[in-house]
Design brief:
Helices cover 58% and strands 17% of the residues. By secondary structure, the chain is an alpha+beta fold. The chain has one domain: 60s Ribosomal Protein L30, Chain: A (2-Layer Sandwich), CATH 3.30.1330.30. Helix 2 runs parallel beside helix 3.
């Protein structure tokens, strides 16, 4: 029984993180502080103009590896979105899929 309770707690924690990520994205979109797309996000990470990056769960592993490497150097927070690129695009209010979203500083 103890193992089942631990699994349930982990699921609730994951949902809380997802809800927190969606709130962060929605607030940033309202304020106009977002950058869409892999190339634009990678450019922002390398320049240090982003404070947080969110990527979809169907993002290619090579892109994720590059993102994690560059973000670690720049000290930028990385979050995984619990949904695919279509759901991330819909959350941002776009009629197309979005693999990565960067939230700018300030």
């Amino acid at each position: 029984m103890a193992a089942k309770r631990t699994e349930k707690r982990g699921v609730k924690k994951e949902r809380k993180i997802t809800a927190d990520t969606t709130k962060i994205i929605k607030d940033a979109v309202k304020k106009g502080r977002v950058v869409f797309g892999t190339n634009a996000v990678m450019r922002g990470v390398k320049r240090g103009t982003l404070e947080c990056v969110v990527y979809a769960n169907n993002c290619p592993t090579g892109s994720i590896a590059d993102l994690l490497h560059n973000a670690k150097i720049a000290g930028i927070e990385i979050r995984a979105f619990n949904g695919n690129s279509v759901a991330l695009g819909e959350l941002c209010g776009k009629p197309f899929s979005v693999l990565m979203v960067g939230i700018t500083i300030g």
